[in-house]
Amino acid sequence: MFSVEQLQAFVTTVEVGSFSAAARHLSKAQSVVSQHIINLEIDCNATLFERTGRYPQLTDAGKKLLPQAMALLNQHQRLTNSVLALNDQIPREITIALDEGIPLKIIASAIAELQTKYPNVSLEFLSASSLDIIDMLKSEKPLTGIIFSELNIPSDLDYECLGSVQFDLYIAKSHPLAKQGCKNIDGLRLYRQLLIRSRNTQTSSFQLKISPDVWYADNYFVLLELAIQGYGWCLLPNHVAIEDVEKGNLIKLPIEFEKMGWLANVDILQHQRHSNLEVFKVLRSLLRNVL
Questions:
Q1: HSE-CB for 157 with a 13 A CA cutoff
Q2: What angle in degrees, to the nearest 10, is found between the helix axes of 108-117 and 278-287?
Q3: In which domain, by residue range, is 80 found?
Q4: Are residues 140 and 257 in the same domain?
Q5: What is the rounded distance in angstroms from the CA atom of residue 187 to the CA atom of residue 5?
Q6: For residue range 210-229, what is the model confidence (pLDDT) as tens digits?
Q7: Rg (alpha carbons) of the chain, rounded to whole number
Q8: Tell me, what CATH number does 54's domain have?
Q9: Does residue 241 share a domain with residue 167?
Q10: Are residues 81 and 125 in the same domain?
């Protein structure tokens, strides 16, 4: 009967593209990974990879097995995390990491209620980009992340939607586009774009690169200041931009397609090892529908 190690070798090879890359990813010898896959093929009585080319390609049998193998590995990871959490007590310190584009005031009342219910729990607050917060959660710390929704959430993180935040396109009053406006998205390609990305240079799935000329920052307040100085146009949460709009430092980009801004969903994320602890359930409940 096949083993978890065999399935890990199989799925990882598919994900990274080769047996050698899978071995590096799993910190195993390539011969070990290859043998795991050979044994899995024997157990399944089917060839899972076509090996005639430079890189292994899934056979029809491999394609059929892959989604089932991935689902089983995800469930195995959840079981492992549940076992590790069996003896966990209420943590003495909880970290709440918040994307700075999400208004802090939305969680203020929830924090007050949490403190009343768990007076001995110390709270730490961090501000980072959504993608950086996802990376933090991989460390299995007792951490709650509040982020803008991303398309790719690691399978060992639990999450739910809290609501949404309105974004719009903004530029400085002195910017050429402020006077001439913009008929369509092609007009934006002619001017520098200011864009969010993480500290390890990942770009958010909802922050699309449109212009060939891009400057990057890892938080919206840096983008705000760059926009005010006239260095380019950018998407900003309305609550970040509103004060400078009212002061006349910034304007919404005049554009014929008036609804080029959008509502970005906000999610709360917790690692599976901690998400079933009562204190984390309470925190999720308090934050539910705050937006």
A1: 26
A2: 150
A3: 4-85
A4: yes
A5: 52
A6: 889 999 988 899 999 999 99
A7: 24
A8: 1.10.10.10
A9: yes
A10: no
